[in-house]
Amino acid sequence: MFRKRFLMLSLLFCGVISFFWLTDQTFIQIDVKQEEAQEKERLLQMDEPHFWIISDNHFFPDTFIEESAAFRAFEATALGNDLRYTETILTAFVQKALVEKPTGIIFTGDVTLNGEKAGLDRMVELLQPLQEAGILILAIPGNHDIYNGWAREFKNGDKITTHQISPQDFQRGFSDGYRLSQATDKHSLSYSLDAGAYRLFLLDSNIYADRFSKKEPVSHGRFSEETLAWLEARLADAKEKGKTPILFLHHNLLAHHEQMTDGFVLNNASDVLSLVNQYEVPLALSGHTHLQNILQQVDPSNFYEISSGSFSAVGTSIGHLTLQENTIIYENESFDPLPYLDSQHLANPDLKNYSAYVRLKAQELGEEMARELFRSYAIDADTQLMKEVGEAYVFYFMGGSQLTPLQKEARLARLQESLPRKDDSSLLESYRQLLDAVNWEAHHHLVIQP
């Protein structure tokens, strides 16, 4: 009898504990759901949301860097990107955002160097003060981010493999967008959310493995048939609800340079552009090329694409996107971290003159590319010509310069004089394209009234 009473009391006690535990859990769930609903409503009711656009920041944590021959050799292959100071520059960026308080930050892919899980974790940690301040962190992956066989760290003088980012890791790390989404795509990391009078589509355009990979990242991008169907359904819903759609993706929908199409322009861009035209999408923002460039579709001409310059390369690009009820305003800024660096960092000449540091990296890369090209044309180029071609490379990726028409013609004439065959127009035409794209205002400022 005593044993029976003891068992009954034990069950009753466990039941009471379970009740309170379940009740507590229910309260937590209700609180979370209410908080998310309030955040969604706050976004929806905004008169003028303002987002900062970051692309191709290729974050590489300080703990993965060491002064070794292996790291320096790796750094030399970075194609003008800064690998050494990404943590310092992101920390400075966070300080700027805390002061200026945008609605949110939108990362359009290649958030990590080569999909290092520890890099994602550290980046999320550095961004946490923004979330605590009510600034949203929205992101989509780039071709370097998910199951990338190039993921490496440096330890004891060696380059070694490291844990890769999975799709689930990415969703957990950048949870704001998925929490507050109006809809998510079951077949990719794509989602949409409403902000004021607009519907933002953050689209996963990448091709990656479904498990740990030993292969290099795939440069090409495409949307699956399922994702295209999801996109069309959500665009139709946006139109029905009177929301103006804006697309964000890593790959380009338009060709921003004739030499940067294969592997850069989305494989099935024509299918997406058909939806763009059908549902009157006024704007897309992409990355991947590291090129700061604004391009208007020729026919029909009411669609623009902004290819964002890289945050980890020359220009250190930040896009400012302001969404007024009937007007979209875009301004590009070259971020100067200097006001946000402490005395220890300012003692480092690379950081104290960071804009010059990343510009020199691009200049040297441009000169090296020119040197190889000139060698193939049997051109004996002097130092001045090499410098000018290197500068043209810098101008092009930054989205322009202040060269006058006379200065451009003088530079073309100097190259023509160096050609062994004066009628060889292919190299001259390529150089002219670089120089003709130096209209700074056209690639850094845009106003659309959809």
UniProtKB/TrEMBL annotation:
Domain of life: Bacteria
Keywords: Hydrolase, Iron, Metal-binding
Domain Calcineurin-like phosphoesterase: from-to ranges: 50-290
SUPFAM superfamilies, sorted: Metallo-dependent phosphatases
Entry's Gene Ontology molecular function annotations: hydrolase activity; metal ion binding
InterPro entries listed in its UniProt record: Calcineurin-like_PHP (IPR004843), CNP_phosphodiesterase-III (IPR050884), Metallo-depent_PP-like (IPR029052)
Keyword Metal-binding: yes
Pfam families: Metallophos
Family classification: Belongs to the cyclic nucleotide phosphodiesterase class-III family.
The protein's name: Metallophosphoesterase
Species of provenance: Enterococcus aquimarinus
